Amino acid sequence: MRATSEITTAGGTALVVDSDIDLLNQIAGGLRSAGFTVAAHSTVSPAIDAARELTADVAVVGADIALEYLATIAKEADHLLPRNIPVVLTAKSAEQVTSHPELAMRSSDYLLLPIASEELLHRVNTAIHRNRLREERRNESAFLRDRVRRISDDIRQTNEPADMVELALQGIGEALGAEDVTLHTFDDARVSYGGARWQRGVGSAQPNDVSELLDELWVLGTELWRTSGSLAVIAGQLTEVPETMPRIHARMEGFDSSGLLLPIGEGATPFGVVWIVADRGARKWSGAEIALLQHLLGNLAHGMIQGQLIVGQQQVVDRLRELDAAKNGFVATVHHELRTPLSSILGYVELLQDGDGGDLPAPAGKMLEIIERNGQRLSSLVENVLALSVLDAGTELGDASIDLVHLLETVTADLLPLATRKNVSIQVLPTDQALYVSGMWALLERAFVNVLSNAVKFSPDGGKVTVSLATENGAVQVTVEDAGMGIPADELPQLLTRFYRATNSVAAEIPGTGLGLSIAAEAVERHGGSLVIQSELGEGTTVVIELPRS
């Protein structure tokens, strides 16, 4: 604020209200002589009307009439003593004003009678000047509040800490008319951002090297954070900088602008400080400015920490996707590399068993059976691993038309060697309908192979597996029934979980991986269908697969 000697006659419009006609004329005349447009009234009613209609720069009101007015029409007091218009009271004594708190609160200043013209003009102009300063500060605070809201909204629109910092520093600089806004960060696991700087006319830039100051800045920032405070340097005066920080003192020698240091952090400790430099002369940083900046830095700190977590998580997700893609590629390669030699091995085993290589002794025949059996197990495992890869990768299934009867005949033929060894028969009940579904042949084939091979594997010697087909409500139902050992009732809900095996199958030492039914269920569900298992211990198991009919 300027010194009293610098306050000159402002002129403008004045409202004068006093029941003492001589005093009223004296005040009104003095103000008119000084260049004011004056509306003068000696009674309350016209003064109220004038206050409602007139946009005055100042009001000079007699304390007697003000007290009378406040006592009789207190609810409408603002019409005579508007809160946005400075009011100078004329009083017989100081006690006349100070003994009435409401009157003192609603006035800007008061004059004691008798009134000297120079004193009147000085008090009136001082009141106008102060009121204009207050209005400027209010407008600045409203502007800064709006900018803080906008900057906070912009920060919330991104997950990148670097973008958040750039938006915040530029926004602070432009809102305050600052020359320089710099963020210095400490060594803190919550943020990995190394600091940033915004300069008027330059934009984003690298911050100055303050590595030798970081220890002192950390101590200072921590203390400011603990006290929810800030440090202001006005026109190079370093009185607020503690003497225990000689390096900061040395760095700031000759600093002739106005600076404000604020801590930034979250929780118990800060992770940095923000330094704002502005050419403000002797003007101090207002409490409203500091509070709004602290609020904005709180939003920035929260955004930076959350943004770093989100970016880190996204990097992990991206890496996992890369690994998953590599895994799928590896599985496909392994599948190809295993399937080809396995097919060759099983083919030659079959030729040997058929006698194409000449007569074999009985022990050799037994050995070939073992090779063939384990080769088939390995082949099934390889196909299951490939099916898992397809399911986990979310591969598009396509819309190929699949003849379900033909598919089941193919699966039954493939399982015939297994059924023969187990002395189990597979019967597919005939149907006179053409039953088609849409999807991926290989995946549905694997689903039915797993269900039917389980039925054969768990059937007793001489048992029978029955496959029947039916249509219902636009869907095809495939029912696979066996008379095997069954499944404990309390284990049925877990049976479709990957790698889960029923306890009775483990106890009976029946080989398996616990993948077959889970793969079958997932494959069927991917085709828009369902797989339901019904079983009774010791009586057998029924699997019902339902698929949309195409």
Automatic annotation (TrEMBL):
Location in or out of the cell: Cell membrane
Spell out the SMART domains in the cross-references: HATPase_c, HisKA
The UniProt keywords, alphabetically, are: Kinase, Phosphoprotein, Transferase, Two-component regulatory system
Q: What is its main location?
A: membrane
The yes or no answer to whether the keyword Transferase is present is yes
Reaction(s) catalysed (UniProt annotation): ATP + protein L-histidine = ADP + protein N-phospho-L-histidine
EC class, as a word, reads transferase
InterPro entries according to UniProt = CheY-like_superfamily, GAF-like_dom_sf, HATPase_C_sf, HATPase_dom, His_kinase_dom, HisK_dim/P_dom, HisK_dim/P_sf, Sensor_HK_Regulatory
Q: Where is the Histidine kinase domain?
A: 333-550
Superkingdom classification of source = Bacteria
Q: Which Pfam families match?
A: HATPase_c, HisKA
Identify the Gene3D superfamilies for this entry: 1.10.287.130, 3.30.450.40, 3.40.50.2300, Histidine kinase-like ATPase, C-terminal domain
**Every Response regulatory domain range:** 13-128
Q: What EC number(s) does its UniProt record assign?
A: 2.7.13.3
Listed name of the protein: histidine kinase
Q: Which organism is it from?
A: Arthrobacter parietis
Q: What is the lineage of its organism?
A: Bacteria, Bacillati, Actinomycetota, Actinomycetes, Micrococcales
